[in-house]
Amino acid sequence: MSNKILITPKSFKTYKEKAYLMLRENGFEIIENTYGRTMTEEEIIECAGEGVAGIIIGVDPLPASVLEKCKDLKAISKYGVGMDNIDLNKAKELGIKVNNAVGTNNVSVGELAIGLMFALGRNIPDTVKGIREGGWGRKIGVELTDKKLGLIGAGQIGKEVAKRAAGLEMKVSIFDPYFNDEAFLEKYNIERCHDIEQLYKESDIISLHLPVTENTRGFMNKEVFGKMKNTALLINTSRGELINERDLYDALVSGEIAGAAQDVFSSEPPEAGEKLLSLENFMLTSHIGAFTNEAVEKMVVISTRNLLDMLIS
Ligand code: NAD
Predict the structure, then answer these.
(1) Of 238, 262, 283, 284, best ligand 1 pocket probe by most atoms within 8 Å of the beta carbon
(2) For 174-200, what is each residue's pLDDT tens digit?
(3) I want to staple 104 with a disulfide (CB 3.0 to 4.6 A). Which of 12, 42, 163, 298 is the partner?
């Protein structure tokens, strides 16, 4: 019987003791990601091709071609929420169970989205960098108070952003066709927008909190940037693929929008010479949304528990 578990997320090790104990008590042997980075398809096949019953997966790729080669795989537990790196249809076809760690990192990612609004609006990283280099420069910023924040997607993370933004006295408007928590809107004095065109046109800041699907891939493109305010800021802590990055570059250079801050990118890390990184009004963090002590601890425990539930039940 296959009894090995492959664990790929780099940050898992920080809180691994409890999880390893849970897995070993249930007779499982652990294979760690020894590469110190996101694993490639070939490396995953090499580690999990035979004898591996379960994978705790980070953002590493699990397309159909990899799943087909993991002969003994019974369950995949996502360390986090977004499952766009897993071919869910193929997993279903192969009888591989899949689950994700809902409710573990929504506060951390929500706080980062708010942090990026301040960082971009007040030019904090550039100011700090300038001083380190011996300067004392200043670039004028904007307040968040009274600004209209358009949230596209209001699930676990979008709602955390909405609550915090309302606390900052921003005017929050959400666009999410599947949203059904009217009490939340009333409690935090948040507006529901049913027309995304209106949200593009009126928002001072747009923050993305929706998954990548066939319908949403690259939906923030030239056409949409053309509808936004010239002063608008774009925040993306969701997935790089939601934005057409070439169109974003053009919009930032031409001044069609004022700035963008992202925690995610279409290729992580970005290719050498990526043009967006040369722009002063573009800012990128290294997928740190869920990288806090609190979220990592929850993701380790819950993804391990989810995997055991799928393998043992
Ligand atoms: P969620 O499933 O709780 O919420 C997503 C929301 O998007 C849902 O309410 C859904 O109705 C809405 N939605 C779907 N399609 C939409 C559309 N076309 N227009 C508007 N709304 C739409 O997910 P979540 O946990 O809030 O995660 C949101 C995003 O954040 C995901 O892309 C996830 O991968 C990403 N994420 C990033 C990090 C990070 O470290 N930066 C960490 C966790 C999650």
Answers:
(1) 238
(2) 999 999 999 999 999 999 999 999 999
(3) 298
